[in-house]
Design a protein that fits this description.
Layout lengths: L16 H11 L8 H15 L7 H22 L3 E6 L2 E7 L10 E2 L5 E2 L8 E3 L1 E11 L4 E3 L2 E3 L3 E5 L2 E6 L4 H8 L8 E6 L13 E5 L9 H4 L8 E5 L6 E5 L5 E6 L2 E2 L2
């Protein structure tokens, strides 16, 4: 997402016990109805839960979770959808895919053969779309934070792959300005799908990202040359239990992918 370091967080990378407690105490403001100590304790409990540290065997729990996400990504890739659609309140959006767009989970292998999960916690499967084939209107289902500015009630209209209208109840100009930063900033670099079983708010909904795309999610060199390039990458949430997601085949058939937050594929 477009969030950055909160104003009360330490500016140094060094983190002794005092500064770490200060940093996390600031984050405890997410529970403003509680006293600071109680808010901090509840925050730590939630961090433990979303990171699966409350499981009997956290490492095994993560491996099983990533395996499930990877299996879903493999099934999606195997269908070779030409596009995905999102339909729900205020949303009717079609996102075209490149011929060799591969769906992925956050599981990678280093050059030395070490499997690692660099995006923890994670609940998504994602790919890189065709930046020239995005059309329709989409409503953000969660607020977006960009460097301390909260953008609420966001709607974006796309035409021919480009965001041609950005409106919000609050913070509109911040995202509009970001989308004008370079030629690729108003086009998509990512589309991600999330079911309703996720544990963390940042990944709790399907989302799209304005800006830079991921070449590693594309199988063919010619297709990789078409991936969107930009100096920004801003995720915003567009999914939810009331947003239906379909995969569209090359023949135009719509195949249910998410219904009521549950995988259909």
């Amino acid at each position: 997402m477009g969030s950055t370091r909160p104003e009360w967080a330490p500016t140094s990378r060094r983190c002794d016990r005092r500064t770490c407690v200060w940093w996390w105490s600031g984050w405890a403001k997410v529970h403003p109805d509680l006293e600071p100590a109680a808010g901090l304790a509840k925050l730590w409990s939630e961090v433990m839960h979303v990171c699966r540290l409350d499981e009997d065997d956290p490492a095994s729990a993560w491996n099983a979770h990533i395996s499930r996400l990877s299996s879903t990504a493999e099934r999606l890739s195997g269908r070779r959808f030409d596009a995905v659609t999102f339909r729900g309140p205020g949303t009717d959006l079609t996102v075209g895919l490149l011929p060799t767009s591969n769906w992925m989970a956050a599981s990678f292998t280093t050059a030395a053969g070490l499997e690692h999960h660099p995006n923890l916690p994670t609940e998504e499967v994602f790919t890189t779309p065709d930046p020239e084939r995005v059309d329709g209107v989409v409503r953000s289902t969660k607020p977006l934070d960009i460097e301390g500015t909260l953008i609420e009630g966001l709607t974006v209209r796309f035409q021919g792959g480009r965001a041609v209208a950005i409106d919000a109840e609050r913070g509109t100009e911040v995202l509009r300005t970001r989308s004008e930063r370079d030629p690729g900033a108003a086009r998509l670099g990512e589309v991600a799908l999330v079911d309703g079983e996720g544990r963390i708010g940042e990944n709790a909904a399907s989302h799209i990202a304005l800006g830079n795309g991921f070449g590693f999610a594309i199988g063919d060199e010619a297709d990789r040359r078409r991936v969107n390039a930009s100096s920004i990458h801003i995720d915003f949430m567009i999914g939810g239990n009331d947003v239906d997601v379909d995969g569209v085949t090359g023949d135009g058939e719509h195949v249910p992918v998410l219904r009521g937050g549950a995988w259909q594929i």
